[in-house]
Inverse folding.
């Protein structure tokens, strides 16, 4: 005799989680990181719960906050670094990266670099790109690089919303 699980029993089943940690430079970078999180949530569906945590670069200067951000990065399935492309990454961001890189070895995870502003052209030899790609390699992680539109650009449609970034457009380990 077959038994069917009730909807109450199905609701009690454990859900899978996909953990995302994003560090961002400014409000525009934060918005880009959140767009990626929203896209992922829509792609994951209802069977997987997306858990995201965002940290502004400035918070990484605070030692207790930085330790917490490192611990979250170690557990993350996806780490996002959203920064201005032409600027060198801040020292506190590099320290944060260096703290979690050794702990990520052997895990399945990816690092996404969201760099630059719309219309600036993506140059794959910028300091942030090179540094983050090398960090991902040391951690044994996949690396994705994507230039995304800034918060106030002309890519927004008539409703003021920009189309969501598409992962198939990203360069894998470029």
């Amino acid at each position: 005799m077959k038994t069917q699980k009730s909807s109450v029993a199905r609701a009690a089943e454990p859900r899978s989680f996909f953990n995302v940690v994003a560090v961002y430079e400014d409000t525009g970078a934060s918005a880009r990181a959140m767009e990626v999180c929203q896209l992922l949530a829509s792609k994951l569906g209802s069977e997987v719960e997306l858990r995201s945590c965002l940290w502004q670069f400035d918070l990484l200067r605070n030692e207790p906050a930085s330790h917490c951000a490192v611990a979250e990065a170690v557990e993350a399935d996806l780490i996002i670094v959203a920064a201005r492309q032409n600027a060198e990454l801040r020292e506190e961001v590099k320290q944060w990266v260096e703290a979690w890189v050794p702990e990520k070895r052997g895990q399945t995870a990816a690092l996404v670099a969201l760099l630059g502003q719309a219309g600036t052209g993506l140059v794959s030899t910028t300091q942030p790109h090179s540094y983050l790609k090398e960090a991902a390699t040391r951690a044994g992680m996949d690396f994705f690089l994507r230039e995304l539109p800034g918060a106030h650009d002309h890519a927004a449609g008539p409703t003021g919303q920009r189309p969501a970034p598409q992962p198939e457009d990203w360069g894998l380990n470029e």
